[in-house]
Amino acid sequence: MNITYWAMALLSTTLSEDGFTGYFLSGFIEIPGALLGVMLLFKFGRRTVTVWSFTVQCTGTIQTALAVIAKFFNTFIWVAQPLMLAEMSPTTVRNIFCGTVSFFGVIGAVIAPYLPLLKTISPEAPKVTVSIVSLAAAIVLLTAPETKDLPMPEDVNDFDPGRFLQLFGYQKQRKQSVFMAAENAAIFEEWTTVCLSLLAFLVLKVIIQDVYCFFS
């Protein structure tokens, strides 16, 4: 979501001979996209809106003429994804769950500014890359559980893993005590903090190296 959004924003200057016009259209289309996205979420499921948005975004970024339409549907994703994520995550670990997913999304935002460099390989390479990422996200989300009009999970044992995690052997367990779930959540939080701290250090190291090379 992040990598496709920022990549399309940076590539929007190629939509018109005047780069400012293309960038303006790319930003302006988010207003009707956000409004329509909210209305669609009341009518359709969160997974349905997100998957179709990723799919149309994938198709749109292949052709420059459809890039504004792709950005329009990317706005749908920004409306649907946070709601879907919050409704999927168990109450006892919702902070950790949402924070972890958001962290990896920010990594995508860090990578996005480097996508225009792919033009040295082919002028269409950045758009093709965004299309591939969008298609992959749509396929993965097809395996996610639908959350519309369903009760939110109270603890880890109520979490619906969806078909994707079930492929890796994760099965929904019978409900146990809230105290046991809280204990598991504390252990998970500790390991998540360590892993995210390491990833943050590595990302920061790359950014510092790039800034140093730029000013050298």
User: What is the number of helices?
Assistant: 9
| Separation of the first and last Cα atoms | 33 Å
Q: Which stretches of 5+ consecutive residues score pLDDT under 50?
A: 174-180
Based on helices, strands and strand pairing, what is the structural class? mainly alpha
Quaternary state of the chains = single chain
CATH level 3 topology of the largest domain: Growth Hormone, Chain: A
Strand content: under 5%
- Please tell me the CATH architecture of the largest domain by its name: Up-down Bundle
CATH hierarchy class name of the largest domain: Mainly Alpha
What radius of gyration results from the CA coordinates? Answer: 19 Å
Topology as a string of helices (H) and strands (E): HHHHHHHHH
Question: What's the mean pLDDT score?
Answer: 71
What is the number of strand segments? Answer: 0
How is the main sheet built?
A: none
Under CATH, the homologous superfamily of the largest domain reads MFS general substrate transporter like domains
InterPro entries: MFS_trans_sf
Main location: membrane
Membrane topology: Multi-pass membrane protein
Organism: Acanthocheilonema viteae (Filarial nematode worm)
